[in-house]
Specification:
Fructose-1,6-Bisphosphatase, Chain A, domain 1, D-Maltodextrin-Binding Protein, domain 2, 2 domains, 8 helices, 25% strand
Amino acid sequence: MPPALRSEDLLALAEQAARAAGAELLRRAGRPAGVASKSTWTDLVSDADHAAERAIVDTIRAARPHDAVLAEEGGAAPGDSGLRWVVDPLDGTVNYLWGVPHWAVSIAVADGDGTLAGVVHDPTRGETFGAVREGGAWCGGARLRVTRPAGVGEAIVATGFNYLGEERARQAAPLPRVLPAVRDLRRFGAAALDLAWVAAGRIDAYFERGLQEWDWAAGALLVREAGGAVAFLDAAPPRPAGVVAAHPALVAPLRALIGEDGPGPGTGS
């Protein structure tokens, strides 16, 4: 791989962009402005989201003007280099707007074979989770490893809920079966951090339908490089696609428990 395309260099650029966005978000925290709804009245965006996205896209395009960019709030740019950046400038917007200190910046970069490098940056805790393909996952100087509970019954499992009321009702349907069968259930409200915390062993598993690529692109790489597996749930209209992430031995039992039986862990991007 040419020096300009080393995964470590791309990771460093992703970290630089994520920290620039994080600084912008911290500066604006507690002073929400320009808040509007998107897909539903519960799906919010603010001036802070847009400012963070501009900081990321400007940083990436200044260093790599020929790369493509896909960003949640519309900051897309074409490219012909063979690399594509997938950006969520503020994962957990509702948490951010309500002053709940659980939100993150997520940036991944992919080539034709999948994700090369990914970063989930948590500005409020000062933590940056990063991974490169076949190079491991890290937070600061600590190597990340997923946990392996004895079984689903020993697992702390995280999930999330859709913005559409009808899908939330479908997501709630298996919970009376799940809750008695696991150690406990968590709903934090930021998919990228949920995946980073699976990679770090802070939670044992995570599942959710209705995610977009920018929600999981960096976090999925973190989980895989920390020894975990990510299974992708195909869309089954009216149900959107989704993911299940955990230690490889836990994915199939968890899928069975939540009623999402299907093929084993996928490779994904």
